[in-house]
Amino acid sequence: MNNNKRFLAIGLTIGQLLVASLHAQTNSQWMKEQYRPQIHFSPQEKWMNDPNGMLFYKGTYHLFFQYYPDSTVWGPMHWAHATSKDLVHWQQQPIALYPDSLGYIFSGSAVVDRYNTSGFGRDGIVPLVAIFTHHNIEGEKAGRNNFQNQSIAYSLDEGKTWTKYAGNPVLKNPGITDFRDPKVMWYQEGKKWIMTLATKDRITFYSSKNLKDWTRESEVGSSFGAHGGVWECPDLFSMDYEGKKVWVLIANINPGGPNGGSATQYFTGNFDGKNFIPFKTDTRWIDYGKDDYAGITWHNTGTRRIFLGWMSNWQYGTVVPTKKWRSANTLPRELSLKKVGEDYYVASMPVKELNSIAGPTKLVENVQAADRDLTKNFGAFTGLAKLDITTDKAESFSVVLYNELGEKLVAGYDQASNQYYVDRTASGKVDFQKDFAGRHTAPRFSNKPSIHMTLVIDHASIELFADDGLTVMTEIFFPNRPYNHIKLQSPANMLWKKIACTSLKSIW
Ligand code: FRU
Fold first, then answer.
1. Are residues 460 and 478 in contact, defined by beta-carbon separation less than 8 angstroms?
2. Strand order in the sheet with 452-458
3. What is the rounded distance in angstroms from the CA atom of residue 120 to the CA atom of residue 210?
4. Could you write out the DSSP letters of every residue in 146-188?
5. Which residues are bridge partners to 56 per DSSP?
6. Which residue ranges make up each domain of the chain?
7. Is this model's pTM higher than 0.85 or not?
8. Ligand 1 within 6 A of 292 CB?
């Protein structure tokens, strides 16, 4: 990766100095590029997809991710690495895992092996162990069905460097073409590791005492959920609801999402160390927008459950109009369980750490506004903001981001269908792929009389959290000029109880 290049001025010729200063400029310019996310992690250059191996250890949040250092489109996969102290500000680190003779390094997870079950620990150092899929490209090209196998690597220096285990792969493919993306957790009741693995359009659970020898426990999913595509990047964890332990199974799916393409479905239920039994067989989506995929949660964050997704969609991820890099992640989100009637829902809200980049909040209260440009109240819109909206009743309304070219992004609520929506039909550059433009919808689950919506806006994305995270939508956009206005639209007599606009500062 050339983003870590350093140039020593001492002893350089003038020519070298000129080159050096050019590089320094390029290196500091990356965060100003058109569409560069300012409050989301994106790699300085080249291709990124799924978040991998997210773990928290000794005060640092680690984020590994699918990465191809030679191109802005997908290719031989590596695990790249970034770290953060607060989930908001990120430092990109050297690549952690390179492809090898067993294959590309596909998605997976990482754990703190506190009891040194793997035996990789030395001199009292707790090993971090990564569990990932080796994808053998020759095997795939030759039409074999066993080209994806699970392997492990360990780190004894808090995630800086990784050593692949000599006995890889640790879980061999029994002949299932899609056999990947291991997410591993410690199951305390059984004192064993549980691996949740995506196997075709379902999940297979494996268990292990040492992260090296794995036993098949059960398979689940063929009789519930969405099956419009292959299941990928699963996750399994428990959450507390008023003293009751509820298990959540995440199964990303591609294609087959609620608005087309890739998306993250989940189920609530029970898990006994062997079987997962869902409470309900219908699918719920962590995020109904088009741009939250391959999302899973951080390991080792105590009672917090923190989720992060890839903010794109396989329908068009490789052709979005960014030049030097492709893709960003969603905001890290705190998951919680909520109940509506008898049903459990997983709600997501931005992590509280986002407040560390909050500027002043400006407020408008109790206004009736059929069509109101907020510039008068809040000043010119600079492209980074959190809007918190509370209405008096659940009536139709929209928030419009727009520029002087007439390009606009519309987010809102439609009373007749009881749906939230994001419409990016006229949002700017939309014709790079046929499935990008469109009006995308999500059901409202809450039965509260008024609507509370949080919108987090970056230079190329909007994240909509309605009813305290019960319904979420994430969508990216590419206006030809930045949106510099926000306006509200609603029936003339609708009462906007509160509109709070908090400006956000760039994380770079
Ligand atoms: C999901 C996915 C995973 C796979 C990885 C490859 O986006 O297809 O299933 O491990 O990407 O980059």
1. yes
2. 358-368, 495-504, 385-391, 452-458, 461-466, 471-476
3. 10
4. --EEEEEEEESSTTSS-EE-TT--SB---S-SSEEEEEEEEEG
5. 61
6. 37-350, 357-504
7. yes
8. no
- pLDDT on residue 376: 87
CATH architecture of 357-504: Sandwich (2.60)
- Please state whether beta strands 306-310 and 293-297 pair in parallel, antiparallel, or not at all (unpaired): antiparallel
Mean pLDDT for 164-190 is 98
Please give the mean pLDDT across all residues of the chain: 94
CA–centroid distance, residue 389 to ligand 1 (Å): 36
Cross-strand bridge partners of residue 109: 131
CATH architecture designation of domain 37-350: 5 Propeller (2.115)
Residues listed for the chain:
508
Compute the distance between CA of residue 91 and CA of residue 310 in angstroms, rounded to an integer.
Answer: 17
In this structure, the residue with its CA closest to atom 9 of ligand 1 is: 232
Distance 90 CA to ligand 1 centre (A): 23
Instruction: Flag whether pLDDT at 21 surpasses 70.
Output: no
**Distance, CA of 131 to CA of 117 (rounded, Å):** 14
Q: Are strands 46-57 and 325-326 parallel, antiparallel or unpaired?
A: parallel
Catalytic, 50? Answer yes
50 within ligand 1 shell (Cβ under 6 A): yes
Contact 366, 499 (CB under 8 A): no
Residue 402: strand, helix, or coil: strand
Ligand 1 center–CA 330 separation, angstroms:
17
Residue 107 CB less than 6 A away from ligand 1: yes
Closest CA to 81 of 91, 71, 72, 89: 91
On the question of pLDDT at 1 being above 50, the answer is: no
| Confidence (pLDDT) at 4 | 40
User: What is the model's pLDDT at position 203?
Assistant: 98
Ligand 1 atom with minimal separation from the 198 CA: 9
DSSP 377: H
| Cα gap 154→324, rounded to integer Å | 31
Instruction: Give the position, in ligand 1's atom list, of the atom nearest the Cα of 314.
Output: 7
Residue 356 pLDDT class (50, 70, 90 cuts) = very high
